[in-house]
Design brief:
With 346 residues, the chain is an all-alpha fold. The longest helix has 27 residues, at 155-181. The chain is built from 15 helices and no strands. The chain has helices at 3-17, 19-24, 33-52, 56-74, 82-97, 106-118, 128-148, 155-181, 191-194, 211-217, 221-227, 234-260, 290-297, 303-316, 333-343. It is found in: Mitochondrion inner membrane.
Length: 346
């Protein structure tokens, strides 16, 4: 099988195991769609490591492979691995489009890998803030990488991406809770891994809710293992965590509305001073306004739509995270996304 055939085969799997992201690629600017697919395919592969291995040492070795693969892919010499080949092509195209002025950040790829490895064995989130940090270092970071591929270096766009990524990451952890609590036998690909959940390297179940939230709601892990959705306090704990995800989406919508009206946002971007966020130079011919940045970046921010739809479904089942209604991709996503994109609302 040729490299091109391998990449095409992998994209077919990707469309199956991360269908929401595959649907939302339609709204990403055409020049960045290949990079978007490559970045999401990378996330799917790294997130799937926990499902594919039953030994933490093997999982850590696979993570190290990806650190080395990213280095080689961004240098134009990817290993014979479909996703690495896709990433190398995306990086090459970006540099060609910008005459070498823009590139994908190795440090952001490394951040995703390191965070995934940290949670290979399902260590508990000590508090809700730790869960937010996990979401920032995975899903927000994937959005930063996609914005780079446009290319765009915008504080406004990154700020919106941070809130949307945190909401998506938190919702993904909730979505994966049944899968983590009652893990299936190891397998190469998992639908939950496609949405970014990470079941542990071992097959011992875990309740991946912040410990402070569980304590406040009176949730005991052993009762979840025995009673599932009927465990005392579980729905209250899920509600608390889901509310934090909703808060981030509300904040992003308020920011969007203010910016579209020509106003300012009411708070600073908490990560703007991190080394990876550099706004002193621009890769466009002229400095753009925040409103223009939002317009250019809007397609990249569309995961807000899919995340809100899932949170709405969770509310409709009274925060029963074990409900079978939450295990499928909403059939309404294509037209809801089209409506949101055309009205520039999420």
């Amino acid at each position: 099988m040729t490299d091109r055939q391998q990449a095409a085969s992998w994209l077919t799997l990707y469309s199956t195991y991360d269908n929401p992201s595959f649907i939302l690629k339609t709204f990403v600017p055409p020049v960045a769609q290949d990079a978007y697919l490559a970045i999401r395919a990378f996330n799917l592969d790294v997130a799937s490591i926990a499902d594919a291995t039953s030994n933490p040492t093997v999982g850590a070795m696979r993570m190290q492979f990806w650190r080395e693969a990213i280095t080689k892919a961004l240098a134009g010499t990817p290993p014979k691995e479909p996703v690495a080949i896709l990433l190398a092509k995306a990086a090459e195209d970006l540099q060609a489009r910008t005459e070498g002025k823009a590139k994908l950040s190795k440090s952001w790829f490394t951040r995703v890998i390191n965070t995934r490895q940290e949670y290979l064995n399902n260590p508990p989130y000590p508090n809700l803030a730790a869960l937010e940090t996990y979401a920032e270092n995975t899903y927000s970071t994937l959005l930063y990488l996609t914005l780079q591929s446009l290319p765009m270096a915008s504080l406004t766009a990154d700020h919106l991406a941070s809130h949307i990524g945190k909401a998506t990451g938190i919702a993904t952890v909730l979505r994966g809770l049944p899968h983590i609590a009652f893990p299936p036998p190891p397998k190469k690909h998992s639908n939950q891994a496609g949405f970014g959940g990470a079941s542990g390297g071992g097959r011992q179940g875990a309740v991946m809710l912040p410990l402070d939230v569980m304590a406040d709601a009176g949730v005991r892990e052993e009762e979840v293992f025995r009673q599932g959705a009927e465990a005392p306090g579980l729905r209250d704990a899920v509600f608390t965590v889901a509310t934090r995800a909703s808060d981030h989406l509300i904040t992003a919508r308020e920011m969007l509305k203010s910016l579209q009206a020509g106003g300012n946002v009411s708070h600073e971007f908490e990560h703007q001073d991190e080394e990876e966020h550099q706004y002193g130079t621009t890769h466009t011919e002229a400095q753009s306004s925040p409103e223009e940045d939002v317009e250019k970046a809007f397609g990249v921010l569309m995961p807000a739509v899919a995340t809100q739809m899932w949170l709405d479904r969770l509310q409709r089942v009274d925060f029963d995270v074990f409900s079978p209604q939450l295990r499928t991709t909403g059939w309404q996503l294509p037209w809801r996304s089209y409506w949101a994109f055309n009205r520039r609302k999420f």
